């Protein structure tokens, strides 16, 4: 398996623009997670899905952030409108059949810069 | 909320040295603890997962221990190599159905 695949690797955009990050989890994994990593706050869970259904979105910072998982092999994280404070590395991760009882597999991340 | 601390934030050792990385957490009601490695510009790679009922896990030169009662875990790396240079993060799985991450220890192994 190719692992968790994220795109794009880098995204530079201007404040106010819409940003869409994409993720393909490992085939057969039931759980998908979106994390954000910054120097100040470390790794933070934004939202996670189980079998394509959002389970916990309490980490989503504002209504400007939204996430979808239309099928088992694809998820998006959208920021609209983007702000400079959204600059961070966004990771997608997946696990087989538990949110906390198994290894997490991470993608390589999307480095987002909002100017 | 679970708080996870890793000390030191950075560590530099000569090649061949054995070393220990520390992780502490505030709530002992955990399901498991996971150690990750992160290389610059890359995602996290899971190294070891210790279930709450276990006291340690080993993989090659790595050994992770867990002491729930004291809220501590250690990652022992034997005979360190330059290729071990990376940031090591621990993550505690527990209430809230999520992993809580420490901020990591940046390890440099000097040839």
Structure description:
The complex is a heterodimer of chains A (115) and B (111). Chain A has 115 residues and is mainly beta. In chain A, 0% of the residues lie in helices and 54% in strands. In chain A, a hairpin with a 2-residue loop joins β7 and β8 (74-79). The model of chain A has no long low-confidence stretch (mean pLDDT 94). In chain B, the strands form two sheets. In chain B, strands 2, 4, 5, 9, 10 and 11 form a six-stranded mixed sheet that branches. In chain B, strands 1-3-8-7-6 form a five-stranded antiparallel sheet, with no helix packed on it. The model of chain B has no long low-confidence stretch (mean pLDDT 93). Chain A binds chain B through residues 4, 33, 42-43, 45, 48, 55-56, 91, 93, 99-109, 111, and chain B through 31-32, 34, 36, 41-46, 49, 51, 89, 91, 93-94, 96-99, 101-104.
Provide key terms for this protein.
heterodimer; A: 115 residues; mainly beta; 7-stranded mixed β-sheet; 4-stranded antiparallel β-sheet; globular; B: 111 residues; 6-stranded mixed β-sheet; 5-stranded antiparallel β-sheet; 11 strands
Fold topology:
The complex is a heterodimer of chains A (115) and B (111).
Chain A (H helix, E strand, L loop, with lengths): L4 E3 L2 E4 L5 E6 L6 E8 L3 E9 L2 E4 L8 E7 L2 E6 L8 E8 L9 E2 L3 E5 L1
Parallel strand pairs in A: 2-11
Antiparallel strand pairs in A: 1-3, 3-8, 4-5, 4-9, 5-6, 7-8, 9-10, 9-11
Chain B lengths: L3 E4 L2 E5 L4 E7 L4 E9 L5 E8 L4 E4 L2 E6 L4 E6 L8 E9 L3 E4 L3 E6 L1
Parallel strand pairs in B: 2-11
Antiparallel strand pairs in B: 1-3, 3-8, 4-5, 4-9, 6-7, 7-8, 9-10, 9-11
What's the oligomerization state?
A: heterodimer
Mean pLDDT across residues of chain B: 93
What is the tally of helical segments of chain A? 0
Number of helices of chain B: 0
Average pLDDT of chain A: 94
* Share in β-strands of chain B: over 45%
Give the low-confidence spans of chain B: none
Count of β-strands of chain B: 11
Number of strands of chain A: 11
Q: Termini separation of chain B (Å)? A: 40 Å
Unreliably modeled segments of chain A? none
Shape of chain A: globular
> Helix content range of the residues of chain B, please?
under 10%
- Largest sheet: number of strands, sense, barrel closure of chain A: 7 strands, mixed
Please summarize the sheet with the most strands of chain B: 6 strands, mixed
Return the structural class of chain B: mainly beta
Taking all Cα atoms into account, the compactness measure Rg of chain A is: 13 Å
């Amino acid at each position: 398996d190719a692992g968790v695949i994220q795109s794009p690797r880098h995204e530079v955009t201007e404040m106010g623009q819409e940003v869409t990050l994409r993720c393909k989890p490992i085939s057969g994994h039931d759980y998908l997670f979106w994390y954000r990593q910054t120097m100040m706050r470390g790794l933070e869970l934004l939202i996670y899905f189980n079998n394509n259904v959002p389970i916990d979105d309490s980490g989503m910072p504002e209504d400007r952030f939204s996430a979808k998982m239309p099928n088992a092999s694809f998820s998006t994280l959208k920021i609209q409108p983007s702000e400079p404070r959204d600059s961070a590395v966004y990771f997608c991760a997946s696990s087989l059949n538990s949110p906390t009882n198994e290894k997490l597999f991470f993608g390589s991340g999307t480095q987002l810069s909002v100017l | 909320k679970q708080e996870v601390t890793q000390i030191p934030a950075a560590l530099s050792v000569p090649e061949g040295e054995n070393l220990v990385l520390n992780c502490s957490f505030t709530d002992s009601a955990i399901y498991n603890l996971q150690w990750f490695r992160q290389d610059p510009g890359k995602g996290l790679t899971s190294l070891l997962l210790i279930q709450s009922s276990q006291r340690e896990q080993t993989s090659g030169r790595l050994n992770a221990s867990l002491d729930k009662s004291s809220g501590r875990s250690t990652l022992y790396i034997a005979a360190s190599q330059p290729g071990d240079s990376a940031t090591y993060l621990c993550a505690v799985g527990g209430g809230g159905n999520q992993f809580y991450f420490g901020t990591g220890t940046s390890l440099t192994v000097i040839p």
